[in-house]
Write a structure and sequence with these properties.
By secondary structure, the protein is an all-alpha fold. The chain has 16 helices and no strands. The relative contact order is 0.12.
Length: 352
């Protein structure tokens, strides 16, 4: 007993040191976040001497402000989500969803799809694991739909850029889409359109759940490594997206965007959805473009439909899912998502 207690003391000390470092870093993060805007204005209008209200000045101020802000939001969000993810595993998610009835299972699956945000590359093993565990096909699709559509990074960035109302609308609409898509696919009884090899795979039952509880130091270390890896891979896409957004912000006439993506054009929502599919690069990189579009007069419903199509109807996601879905089921899934996203866009344009 004495040996066990003595072995726990270094772990507690390490966790305490980790928490102190975390508090210091979080404090520095908040201070930095709050000085970005005045620093961006100083760089643009004082150091560079550009005129306030000019096209170039507005674009550069937008760029200097959004680059560090988005990178900070991205890094902070990845760190928090990865820490949260250390409490869950794909196996635990499958275990919680197994045996749930239609309706209840769809709601639960959509909710879990948000708080366990696996990436697109996990779509195939997750799908196979869900099917093998006996989870209904419709419930599985509610989970797989919510995971990309309600993107956690986009949710936090929408909150930071537009406030809780728009972020909440994005969350509620995404959940609704995921639940409806799962119910529709479940009612159609499309199991025959799942690739045959999926039904033949048997996942081992042993060792699925975590048997050892990670320490806080281990959780934070994993979160830091994940943050550094992901930010290192996407920072260029973020900067390119912000550059496009800055150009839209400073140079694109408001009337042009209002005509394409405004409420007056009945085809703006379908056009936004179609434009979003091939434009996929990274959800975080699209947020600055969305921000600029809304500031230039684009309607909320159209912009939300555009963003949802980027993260929910992306070509990479469909290509990955084709490995386990026959073309008929993949087409039905894509069509269901498309219709739900378009209807959501029209609804928001109607009520807001």
């Amino acid at each position: 007993m004495t040996d066990i207690i003595s072995s726990q003391v270094p772990i507690r000390n390490r966790d305490l040191k980790t928490f102190v470092i975390f508090v210091l870093v979080a404090t520095a993060w908040m201070i930095t976040y709050n000085v970005i805007e005045p620093l961006a204005n100083w760089l643009t209008y004082t150091l560079l001497g550009l005129e306030q209200g000019s096209h170039l000045g507005a674009s550069l101020a937008f760029f200097f402000y959004d680059v560090p802000k988005i990178i900070l939001l991205l890094g902070g969000m990845i760190f928090l989500i990865t820490t949260l993810r250390s409490f869950f595993s794909a196996e635990q998610t499958r275990a919680w969803l197994g045996g749930k009835r239609e309706g209840v299972g769809n709601v639960l699956a959509a909710g879990l799809g948000i708080i366990t945000p696996f990436c697109s590359c996990s779509a195939v093993p997750l799908f196979i694991g869900f099917v093998e565990s006996g989870i209904p096909l419709g419930v599985t699709f509610s989970f797989l739909t919510a995971t990309p559509v309600v993107n956690e990074i986009a949710l936090v960035m929408l909150f930071g850029l537009f406030g809780w109302k728009i972020a909440g609308l994005y969350l509620v609409s995404g959940l609704t889409i995921a639940i409806i898509a799962g119910v529709v696919i479940g009612r159609l009884k499309l199991e025959r359109f799942v690739e045959d090899f999926v039904w033949q795979i048997k996942v081992g039952k042993g060792g699925l759940l975590q048997t050892e509880k990670p320490t806080w130091s281990e959780r934070f270390n994993i979160a830091w490594e994940s943050t550094r890896e992901i930010v290192g891979k996407v920072w260029l896409y973020v900067i390119v997206g912000i550059a496009v957004g800055a150009g839209i912000h400073g140079f694109v006439p408001e009337s042009a965007l209002a005509g394409i993506l405004g409420k007056s054009a009945w085809w703006s929502v379908p056009a936004g959805v179609l434009l979003g599919v091939p434009l996929y690069s990274n959800a975080a990189g699209m947020i600055p473009i969305v921000h600029a579009l809304m500031e230039k007069g684009a309607s909320l419903g159209t912009v939300l439909a555009f963003m949802m199509s980027v993260v929910g109807l992306s070509l990479p996601e469909m290509i990955i899912l084709r490995r386990v879905l026959k073309p008929q089921l993949l087409a039905i899934f894509a069509a269901t998502l498309t219709i739900a996203i378009i209807l959501t866009g029209y609804l928001f344009n109607l009520v807001i």
